Amino acid sequence: MKRVKIVDVLNQPQVGQEILIKGWVRAFRSNRFIQINDGSTINTLQAVVDFEKFDEAILKKITTAAAVGLKGILIESQGSGQAVELQVTEIEIIGEANPDDVQRTVMQPKKHSLEFLREQAHLRFRTNVFGAVFRIRHAVAYSIHKYFNDKGFFYLHTPIITGSDAEGAGEMFRVTNLDPKNPPLNEDGTVNYKEDFFGKAVNLTVSGQLEAELAALALGQVYTFGPTFRAENSNTSRHLAEFWMIEPEVAFNDLLDNMNLTEDFLKYICQYVMDNCADDLSFLNDREVQEQAQKPQNERNELTLIERLKFVVNNEFKRLTYTEAIDVLQNSNHYKKKKFQYEVSWGIDLQSEHERYLVEKEFKCPVILTNYPAEIKAFYMRQNDDGKTVAAMDVLFPGIGEIVGGSQREERMDILKKKCADFNIDEEELWWYMDTRKFGSVPHAGFGLGFERMIMFVTGMTNIRDVIPFPRTPQNAEF
Ligand code: 4AD
Ligand code: MG
Q1: Which domain, by its residues, includes 63?
Q2: Which ligand is nearest to the CA of 449?
């Protein structure tokens, strides 16, 4: 007999039918009621066992976390709490679980801290929270491909191993197969990477953007969706050393088009999650409501998770320039009362406290900041006519801070060359990037969405380590 998934049984219950389900025991009460989950949904199916009909030896093995196959007839439930239940006729114990072992793991049915769950990332998939988070993570990934596919974008695979440093931040992981004990040296004592595998020094990519630009200037509209790596030593709840980024790039788009695309895209993802992940979302929503109730009134969220998603979909993002944002900050009471830790003046790189003030206190909605000072942004961003700012845009989200970074790109060769010189970038190394500005160069623009930061927003999880299956952070690469 072919097994059926619990999600299908619950969504389209065929009362009276004989079915086979396979899954893991969440609970076994009164030697009679098994709650079984197979991962296809957050919901469990209740299976009812007439204990007089089964061997005690078998019943003993139906313990929390054990894997079982249950055959039976689906009937309308006698009790409250579920519409249907399975009247069990056959039990197969597929994989036993030792109760003593279960006791020391996250599978023990009680509330665990997220920190404890992180230490057991290999088992945390079995919990309701992480089941919900990773089913939603899947749905968001799918929605992103769907969004771009429906709009006629092409998915581009950019290299993970690269010789270029797109962001110019220099925080990269070196990839080499030289012998660390005895690397070939140049005369000046530095490592001679000409003898390395690729004949040059290479790193794990920090962004696929530069390559995406090459493709956009031929295919029109492309996007990347892949892993990116940053060796910044930031041990925060919003940084990973390995994260996933989505980078659309569109020929003929300017900064305004770029803002419109970002806003539409982020709204689409939020709507998709509401439309397609209702059970998981409502579980996470209720969980957050309970957690919030433990907090002092002034630390509670104003909106619930689902309300926040609706808010993003239904409200326009606030758009303002960097220069206007500095004015807003300087005129705030917060500033006058000297509550910002870092200084606020034109030219600073906005700190997370500044971004969060704008989003959470001042505007109370997603914000798109544009036209940043050239010095604090990457070399490829298009210079504005004022000569001081570039056509950059950052999208800031409540509770997250920066979720998207993007810009219109510098398409004018003379200015690009000057920018390389200003930023100390060897244009010879980037010959292939520069080359595209020689053959029908056009205005173009794009952005990067941090996938995990988006997942944080749509799940309400507050630590980025809890939205990626196996987080890589400083001093941590377990599993
Ligand atoms: O702002 P960033 O550095 O932009 C770029 O890399 C551009 N090349 C994008 C483009 O224009 N095509 O990174 C983009 C986004 C950030 O806004 C943030 O959401 C996320 O990537 N991000 C990180 N997420 C998790 N951990 C980190 N260490 C991150 N660094 C950036
Ligand atoms: Mg950025």
Answers
A1: 6-104
A2: 1
